[in-house]
Amino acid sequence: MILSKKSGRSNGVVTIRHQGGRNKRFLREIDFKRDKKDVVGTVLGVEVDPNRNAQIALISYKDGDRRYILAPVGLKEGQKVVSGDNAPIEVGNSLPLSKLPIGMAVHNIEVKPGHGGQIVRGAGSVALVQGKEEKYVLVKMPSGEIRRFSPDSYATIGQVGNVDFRNRKVKTAGARRRMGIRPTVRGVAMHPNAHPHGGGEGRSSVGMKYPKTPWGKPAVGKTRSRKKYSNHLIVTGRKKGKHV
After folding, report:
1. Which partner for 19 in 8, 125, 142, 241 could form a disulfide, CB atoms 3.0-4.6 Å apart?
2. pTM: predicted TM-score of the whole model, two decimal places
């Protein structure tokens, strides 16, 4: 199935700037739920997915079903993987957090049991089982934040593969265009009708008290609201300079 290309548009109107003109991509559906319990699968190979920065592994199960999962570091062709409460503690297997020992590296963690893995899915990401309470399991996130999770939430053992993704360099403008990333023009180089920073003779600075977005809103300080529905599960906040 070919992934439809939106190019940052909704009903023909640009809603996300600097997108468009990328190469054709095929959609690979990823099994984030790992809901084939106690069915052993064999890794057929590790592949590159153009839709994400992490590598993926094609799994063939004994019942004939085939699914893609995120490929953790160390997962190799021919290796066996399984999901379930009694699965072995091995890389690529998926178990409830209550079954994992303290200090175990995990990824693809369920925020709500049964919803499928929602966090720690990017290339090189890894979380650590920090401790266990009466009703929760403490997990240290890649950002340094320590968060409570339900003991029934599933997580996959290991660190997400393609660790060197963050160190890669896009060497040509054409490579970025083939990814679907269009050029970004500085506001001060635009016409004043196109951007609040535009206009003026010769080179100019922003020329106003605060920088503004192309739509005239302040572009400094906190400009978005954080979701607060799960803040009560945070034990220790994230460390400055780190990102999930």
Report:
1. 8
2. 0.85
